Amino acid sequence: MIRVSRVTAAVAAALALALAVPGTALAAPEPEPGGPSAPASPGLPEGWLTTGSGKSAELVWRSPEKVPVGDAQVEFRSGERLLGIPRPAADGRTFRLPLDGVRLGRSDDLRVEAAGRRLDAAGANDAASERRRSDSSSDPSRLPRTATVNKVDPGVPGSFRTTSGEYSLPSVHLPGYDTEVEMKAVVVAPEDATGSRPLALFLHGRHVTCFSGDDATLEWPCPADYESVPSYRGYLHDQQLLASQGYVTVSISANSVNAQDWQADDAGAQARSSLIRLHLAHWADWAADPSTAPEVVRRAPRADLGRVLLVGHSRGGEGADRAALDSLTPPPAGQDGYHGETRWTIRGTVLIGPTIFGQNPAPDVPSVTILPGCDGDVIDLQGEYYVDGTRGVSRGKALHSAVYMTGANHNYFNSEWTPGQATAPADDDFSYGGDEHDPLCSPDTATRLTAEQQQKAGSTYIAAAARLFVAGDDRTRPLLDGSPARAASAGPARVLTHAVGAARAGAFLPDSSATVDGGGRLCAQVDPDPNVSCLNPALITASPHFAQWRRAVPGKEPDRYALAMTWSRPGTATDLSPAHPVSLPGAASLSLRVIVPPNTTGTELDVALTDTSGKRADLGRVRVDGVPGTSRTSSYWAREVRVPLSAATRERIDLGHVKTLHLTPRTESGTAWLVDAYGWRPGTPVVEPAQLARVDVGHLTVMEGDSGTRTYQVPVQVSGSGVGEVRLFVAEPGSDHLVARTVKVRAGTRVDVPVTVEGNTRYSSDDLHRVAVKTVRGAVVGSYLGGVTAQNDDPQPTVTMAPVADQVTEGQPLVWRITLSAPADVATWTDLQLLPVSDGTELSTTDVPATWLDEYFGASPDPERPLSAALPDGTLLMSEVPAGSLSIDMSVPTITDHLNEDTESLRLRLWTYDTNGEAIEGPEFTGTVRDAA
Q1: DSSP label at 798?
Q2: Cα dist. 444→404, 415, 421, 436 in Å?
Q3: 79's torsion region: left (phi>0), alpha (psi -120 to 50) or beta?
Q4: Which residue in 184, 255, 361, 833 is a FRET match for 681, CA 20 to 30 A apart?
Q5: How far apart are the first and last CA of the chain?
Q6: pTM for the full model?
Q7: pLDDT > 70? residue 121
Q8: b/e map 638-665, b = 16+ CB within 10 Å
Q9: SS3 state of residue 807
């Protein structure tokens, strides 16, 4: 007998209402971890369940197999609308989302996604098929190796021998995290190096934290008989290369953050930033007084905290970027785990397959973002936004480079995430998308890198960034800035780069203020309408440039554009005229970032400029080849191409006042997208960070009250200096999307974000009014999500039940009425438990319609059995009183079977639930059915 149903009506009832189903039945309890895949609750797709009640109600999805722990966020969605970020269970298969205040919508379109990839069984295959149908890419091409070998190869080991060791400090408390975070690290440093040496700090991403044999979990601290996964030791190959070149290196552990960051609005970015800066503060202390340092630090040369490089992998990349931003403009004290002075200077960051859930990169700290072409975790390669998202925000002098590495997956940059090298269980993350053979990324293909090849290439480009940003050696810049150069040490890795910033000046940006003439059009990077979007919306993960801001405004985002060109004959020109003339003084070339479909070759465009006086200069022709790709990769990626601005060009037009960029296709047919174009010249200028305003959104919780309306302000803190603009996205009542508006911000001034809360005396769930913020120009953003939660302060109605027709003749329904003491603004649900009849004959499965039995119990009439035994674990009949209603009639239909029978009966018990989800046992009821004969 089921005494307390954990699979209650909390969600399924609301979903049943959305589907116009008056009631439903459930089997309970839910399967134990490690058991078979969860069946669908009635009205829910396969694998979905509901648990709890009231404010403890949860929507639960259970995968038939373990879901690998990765860095992309697992999301529950209803269509395109984000319901929330679920809590992962220790079994690796179960994900739970609290439903207090969540508006569900349609139940037939529930889905589980990570970086745009469908995880749930109901949608994964359909999504993959749709992507294949919508992507017209040909077979993956073999990318020819770049002809020019760079004169300086940063992947060659230096002359220093190395020493290594570990340190462990007392754990620390970080705001919003219940469990303390470890302060543990591995150090690799040069031996016998004189003077102080630059410091490179590594931070791993989100991975399993504990293991025992082949079993791995995401918990902290580790359970008994489990060992911690040493993810922080996974970059020793990178550390050893840098240490041989004279760098002190440290790789820090973040297992506790990994186990807890599901509950953070920013997925742990602020916690990781705090952790990085706590370690840097210790290094600053040790540099000032080496006698206080751990033994391994004392063996190393003194670290030069004026020359720091941060290297972050996946969510560790987002943490590194946030640490760079926080080091320039500190976050609010209540959100930060570090409260001291900034005694270091971050010269640059290397971000490996990073997440960017906040989409607010640090504009004035140079960066290199490595995009793995076969990433099976962060499959949308959203880290591209560390390049694209810096344009126009600040002075534009920091180099922001994207390094697209064909054949590399997400995990193998960390040896502790690599099968055959790792201490704990490890996987090839590209397999997360399924076992189907991929001609580009499956391990047995010629284009897929081995783990050793990938790690060597990664080390080389990390060292290139260190040499450029920290050592100031401009000879390594061609490896990172879109120039056609390669590093010999990267071996067979096929690497492409493009960049913004540095010595670039004068921008042609496709935006809403520009004028487009000719055969092209301004297209929306993120929009569900195929008539305005740059790519078919089904290709949601196909382009890193068009990655959605999934945490805040998925599906549609304003003011993100590209210039789309499609032609069926050569000579169809497209003209882009910015709102203001573009100045290209001193530029040696015009550099363009152009996307063409993957695997295409030979797209040719003639490039010309016209100045404000109408004079025109034809610059020359560029050729653009597509990146190798398949339907499982994000390969609509821009190639950087350049055309010289010759002396003859300077004589023909005024490069200080350029009005229009002309692009004319010379191939027979094709498609291309211009991301941007800049005046380019060699060099990497010294970056002086601008004085920017900083915006952090907070969260306010208020009581709704009993009457009237009250207006509250979302707490928005503006610090830093200067004047900037940000775009606010504010939830509006009844809207699925946040409404955007642009506001000016200045340090110390108020940002007006009013939220109106209406009081009443009706029971309801808490109401969250969400706000998100994104920089436009002259500002940076730390905490990007917040809002106001109006807490319900009214009592839950009491529930009673009375018979309407509890003595009927067969063929008529048994009916009971469930009544509330007062209407509520949310659905109220109950369970009716079918109990065995102890005296007389119980109504059986052949006494009710077979269709009703199947619909509400998923059971068949045969073999005939008592209705209370229709399901082996017991049976519950679920009901809900819809929001605003006072009662509902629950019925059990019967059929006329034309057999002479004794009177049959049905015995029920009412179960209700309090606001904490605890079951409350109610009275019993009996219904009798007389024989029609």
Answers
A1: P
A2: 21, 20, 19, 12
A3: left
A4: 361
A5: 34
A6: 0.88
A7: no
A8: bbbbbbebeeebeeebbbeebbbbbbbb
A9: strand
